[in-house]
């Protein structure tokens, strides 16, 4: 089968087209004919940092975590699926799990679900990692009706799904972004757009919460931006972040009694712990998508398998609005 393979890591490393043996079926797994895969920030980090990240695959490496495709083979013990079923999931591209930048991949059946019927393969491939991450974060923060939720980075991958899911849960949702494209996207998703370059935290907290602060802040930007999330939060609020790789003074969080939730959705894949939770979330997400409650937002540039290097560059440029997808 054809794959796009990395033979070395680093910012200047290039993907190379290679012929690799098609994966063999094994118990509890399915072999999927990959139709599309999306690019996530963690994918670009693995490519650029490599072995310094404990989750990076050994070289030569086939990356790509998200996929949508068609089941070709079913392993012993797998139920609920048949050959020819259209599925999606986040099931490879790290540690010893071959990724989706390939014509075929082996996927643990616990990490997949039937693809939303209303989506194309390209659209479905954009959902798994960001959808699971958004779902888990809102669940851990106990988001519900009547709450005021702020999504930091509302036009990004995780952010645009978090805006929609929080609205589905009955929350009043605001989201930060900048530039006409991002702000328009947030509004289209049903969020109240906040231009973080033009509005101070005090101003938007006053405008959207009457000065009380948000009940939940989902910070998809993370890092140093977490101090802004602390400032925007109300007393005893919930803070969710997907990027906590930093040293940080937690004094502002202490004096507001904030609860901090760090979401690292790759843990079930890395440690084979409760992988079925991801399949359950994907199944629930598919129902919401087909009911019209959630829709993935895709960047307008399209890429084929051999153009994966350009797709990674597109995501890293910061110019993409929505998910960058590679069609296989």
TrEMBL record:
| Keyword Protease attributed | no
Q: Which InterPro entries match?
A: ADH-like_N, ER, GroES-like_sf, NAD(P)-bd_dom_sf, Quin_OxRdtase/zeta-crystal_CS, YIM1/Zinc_Alcohol_DH_Fams
Q: Where is the Enoyl reductase (ER) domain?
A: 10-326
SUPFAM superfamilies hit by this protein: GroES-like (SSF50129), NAD(P)-binding Rossmann-fold domains (SSF51735)
The signal peptide annotation in the UniProt record is: none
Looking at the keywords, is Oxidoreductase present?
A: yes
Alphabetized Pfam families for the sequence: ADH_N, ADH_zinc_N_2
Keywords associated with the record: Oxidoreductase, Plasmid
Q: What protein name does the entry list?
A: Zinc-dependent alcohol dehydrogenase family protein
Q: Which species is the source of this protein? A: Tropicibacter oceani
Which lineage do the record's taxonomy fields give for this organism? Answer: Bacteria, Pseudomonadati, Pseudomonadota, Alphaproteobacteria, Rhodobacterales
């Amino acid at each position: 089968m054809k794959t796009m393979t990395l033979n070395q890591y680093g910012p200047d490393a290039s993907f190379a087209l290679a012929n690799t043996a098609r994966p063999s079926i094994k118990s509890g797994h399915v072999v999927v004919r990959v139709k599309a895969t999306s690019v996530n920030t963690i994918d670009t980090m693995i490519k650029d940092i490599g072995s310094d990240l404990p989750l990076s695959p050994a070289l030569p490496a086939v990356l790509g975590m998200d996929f949508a495709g068609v089941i070709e083979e079913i392993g012993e013990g797998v139920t609920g699926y048949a050959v020819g079923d259209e599925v999606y999931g986040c099931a490879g591209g790290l540690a010893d799990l071959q990724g989706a930048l390939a014509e075929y991949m082996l996927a643990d059946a616990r990490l997949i679900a039937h693809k939303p019927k209303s989506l194309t393969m390209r659209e479905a491939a954009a959902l798994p990692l960001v959808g699971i991450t958004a779902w888990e974060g809102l669940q851990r923060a106990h988001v519900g009706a009547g709450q005021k939720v702020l999504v930091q980075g509302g036009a990004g991958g995780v952010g645009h799904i978090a805006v929609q899911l929080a609205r589905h849960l009955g929350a009043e949702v605001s989201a930060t972004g900048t530039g006409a494209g991002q702000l328009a996207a947030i509004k289209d998703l049903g969020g109240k757009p906040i231009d973080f370059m033009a509005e101070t935290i005090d101003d938007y907290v006053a405008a959207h919460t009457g000065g009380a602060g948000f009940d939940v802040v989902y910070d998809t930007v993370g890092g140093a931006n977490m101090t802004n999330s602390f400032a925007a939060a109300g007393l005893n609020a919930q803070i969710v972040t997907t990027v906590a790789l930093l040293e940080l003074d937690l004094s502002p969080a202490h004096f507001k009694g904030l609860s901090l939730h760090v979401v690292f959705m790759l843990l079930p894949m890395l440690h084979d712990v409760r992988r079925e939770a991801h399949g359950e979330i994907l199944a629930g997400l598919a129902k919401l998508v087909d009911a019209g409650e959630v829709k993935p937002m895709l960047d307008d540039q399209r890429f084929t398998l051999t153009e994966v290097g350009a797709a990674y560059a597109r995501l890293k440029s910061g110019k993409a609005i929505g998910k960058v997808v590679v069609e296989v």
